[in-house]
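Weekly sync, protein design subgroup
Attendees: M.S., D.O., the rotation student, P.L. (late)

Item 1: inverse folding check
M.S. brought a backbone from last month's batch and wanted to see whether the design step gives back something sensible before we order anything. D.O. pointed out we never logged the input encoding, so this time it goes straight into the notes. Structure tokens as presented (139 positions):
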């Protein structure tokens, strides 16, 4: 989070080294707390995405299982009845498999969006803060 450390006015030059170190420590502590809070928010969002993706993949598995059961029913119907009955059962089976494929594709996309579980915004902000501190230290 760049910009969170506010520069002190020029009239603060008379502070002792101990006071300046204390101010820097307090500002750095506040900055670290803010960065940790940002990282928590980012990781929570990625966790929610992973949960949604996993749930959709679980649903795809359940629908696929129902599809296999329907396929077994289709085979039995094909062996014991005339064409229209098993043809209808085969259509139902096909619809179930298409639904399973759609759920799996959506779930996979959700899981890909959640990975890797790193707080990229917080890491970028920390890098920017470190660069800002380095620049100010060299002045």
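Designed sequence read out in the meeting:
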């Amino acid at each position: 989070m760049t910009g969170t450390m506010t520069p002190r006015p020029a009239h603060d030059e008379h502070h002792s080294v101990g006071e300046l170190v204390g101010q820097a420590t307090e500002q750095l502590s506040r900055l670290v707390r803010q960065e940790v809070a940002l990282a928590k928010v980012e990781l929570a969002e990625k966790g929610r995405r992973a949960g949604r993706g996993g749930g959709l993949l679980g649903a795809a598995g359940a629908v696929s299982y129902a599809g296999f059961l329907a396929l077994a029913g289709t085979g039995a119907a094909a062996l014991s009845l005339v064409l229209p009955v098993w043809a209808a059962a085969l259509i139902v089976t096909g619809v179930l498999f298409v639904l399973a494929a759609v759920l799996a594709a959506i779930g996979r996309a959700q899981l890909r969006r959640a990975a890797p579980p790193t707080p990229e915004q917080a890491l970028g902000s920390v890098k920017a803060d470190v660069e800002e501190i380095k620049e100010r230290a060299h002045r």
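Discussion: The radius of gyration is 29 Å. The mean pLDDT is 78.
Action: P.L. to compare against the previous round before Friday.
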